[in-house]
E3 UFM1-protein ligase 1
Amino acid sequence: MAADWEEIRRLAADFQRAQFADTVQRLSERNCIEIITKLVEDKKLDVVFTLDGKEFVTPAQISREIRDELYVHGGRINIVELQQIINVDWVHVENKASDIAKSDRGAQLVLGQLIDDSYLEHLAEEVNDKLQEAGLISIAELCKSYDLPGDFLTEELSKRLGKLIQGEMDQYNRGVIFTPAFVARHKARIRGLFSAITRPTPISTMIGAFGFQEHLLYSVLEELVISGRLKGSVVGGRQDKAVYIPDIYARTQNSWVDSFLQQNGYLGPVSSFISESSVAVISPDLFNVTNVVTRLRAA
């Protein structure tokens, strides 16, 4: 009898525990996916499924992960690489990267790459190191080295000239950056060589013979002529046929015309002056006809 009563008490205790126990219902993974998909379709939940469909992330989480990866990669990362890391559809990564470029100061999208100022500051420091070593550097070279468009590099490097980059950009050719020391050396060479010229000389000849940087040569030559530190003029502008004419050539030409006129009492056709003159003339167009006419009137 006692044993029966003990069994009843045990069963009552089990029943009581069963009454107060929490009921746990487990859903299969497939059921969970179906429920979440339905909530997303009804716009009651804003999440993005991963490519394998086993996880989902919020748009805010995608943005956080993009910023984290941008930092880890030194301020520059390709959208395709981001998509592989975050493991969601490419369009979601591109949209969030575009939002970051618009909202975050210093971040921008360039040819499918997210780039921020930290990367550009580091790039500018590297460019400055190369510049100080070589004296000049071209944007074209940098485009190949860093796989970035020329216009973008020109704009970003221009902002950092005189700060992170100790150099100057040619005002006529924004595709080249020089150091002040490089410009000073070339200015001294240009002044010395052109001061020694006594006859009209094609500028292209000087570029080929002495290896001057073309745009820098024209800029320095123009500055020296305007300031009067070089006595001469440039005919033909910044073109392949441009010629430097020293003042001494014009004076020698005028002296010969005066001498011929005094000795002979007349002046023949300009072509005859050129053929008979001891003055070296590389082109009849360079013979100063204006001075000849002036002297005829004076005579």
Observations:
- The CA atoms of residues 118 and 184 lie 32 Å apart.
- The first helix runs from residue 2 to 20.
